[in-house]
Amino acid sequence: MCHRLLRVYGPRGNFLVDRMGALIGTNKMQLVYGGGSVGLMGTLAKNVVEHGGKVKGVIPEGLMPRELSGECIGDTVVTDTMHQRKDYMAKFSDAFVAMPGGFGTMEELMEILTWVQLGIQHKPVGILNICGF
């Protein structure tokens, strides 16, 4: 069975996030995401697992106290730096989707778009526009 991988950057609009998680899970895809258990990222990851998909979280050790509330969701890779996190996620993803977030989300989206523009990456990039974000 082929498992497609999807990277999601992660705070509003749980209905669309619930639907996206259900689509990923029911299609037996794997979510590669920022590793948090709170906010949109946590909601998405939980929905993927609830619908039969696999989840791989990638989180720098320094962000764990801020981004985790309770247990990790799915398999978790802990990195030393943000650069290691982004490199891991880029290597193990088939596509990239940005959801509403903060400056970190914007920075990661701009970096992956730059990689596509420079020919470093050739994977699809999308933005999930929630509530006119």
Number of strands: 6
Question: Percentage of helical residues?
Answer: 40-55%
Spatial shape: globular
| Global Rg | 14 Å
Overall pLDDT metric: 85
Total helices: the number is 5
Spell the H/E element sequence: EHEHEHEHEHE
**Biggest pleated-sheet summary:** 6 strands, parallel
Given helix and strand content, the structural type is: alpha/beta
Strand % is 15-25%
- Which parts are unreliable, with pLDDT below 50 for 5 consecutive residues or more? 1-12
Topology:
Layout: E1 5-9, H1 14-26, E2 30-33, H2 39-50, E3 54-60, H3 64-67, E4 75-79, H4 82-91, E5 96-98, H5 103-118, E6 125-127
Question: Describe it for me?
Answer:
By secondary structure, the protein is α/β, with parallel strands linked by helices. 41% of the residues lie in helices and 20% in strands. The protein has a six-stranded parallel sheet, with helices on both faces. It starts with a strand and ends in a 6-residue tail after the last strand.
Features:
disordered N terminus; alpha/beta; single chain; 6 strands; 133 residues; six-stranded parallel sheet
Summarize the structure.
The chain is α/β, with parallel strands linked by helices and 133 residues long. It has 5 helices and 6 strands; from the N terminus they run βαβαβαβαβαβ.
